[in-house]
Amino acid sequence: MCAGQHVHLGKDVYINFNCIFVDDANIYIGNNTMISPNVTITSASHPVSPKLRCEGYGCNKPVYRGKNVWLASNVTVMPGVHIGDNSIIGAGSVVTKDIPANVIAMGTPAVIKREITSDDDIYYDGGKLIEENIVR
Predict the structure, then answer these.
(1) What letter does residue 73 receive in the DSSP assignment?
(2) Angle at the Cα of 112 (from 128 to 87), degrees rounded to 5?
(3) Is 82 in the active site?
């Protein structure tokens, strides 16, 4: 088996440097997803039983990334996790369970901090107006 053969990228996916995809099962990454440096996405795990680990058993589960997802630096996504469209995972987070669409989640383990709303089209960084502060 070749590394990367089970990684499925949508259109306009951006992957920064030093990212690791452990694709013993499928990893699906939706359109317009941004993956920051040092992100690890793994579909592979191992049994708790020392006997089964010694015998070479694995536990593989596919991973799904929705469209327009942003994984910030140093995020780790564990096997079987689904991340919904438009969601953001904060830097250094470990995602151990599903994250719904349109939320910001962070921490170890990652928890939902808030929903993404229409205010995010106007304001950023704690209430600063985008038009006055963002450069394209």
Answers:
(1) T
(2) 70
(3) no
DSSP string, 32-58: T-EE-TT-EEE-EE--S-HHHHHTT--
Q: How many domains does the chain have?
A: 1
Per DSSP bridges, beta strands 128-129 and 123-124 are: antiparallel
Domain membership of residue 118 as a residue range: 7-133
pTM, rounded to two decimals: 0.91
Rounded-to-integer distance, Cα 122 and Cα 115, Å: 15
pLDDT digit string (tens) for 51-102? 999 999 999 999 999 999 999 999 999 999 999 999 999 999 999 999 999 9
CB neighbour list of residue 113: distance below 8 Å, 6 or more residues apart:
90, 103, 104, 105, 106
What's the helix, strand, coil split of the chain in %, to 5?
10, 35, 55
Q: What is the CATH number of the domain that holds 84?
A: 2.160.10.10
Residue in 6, 8, 46, 82 annotated catalytic: 46
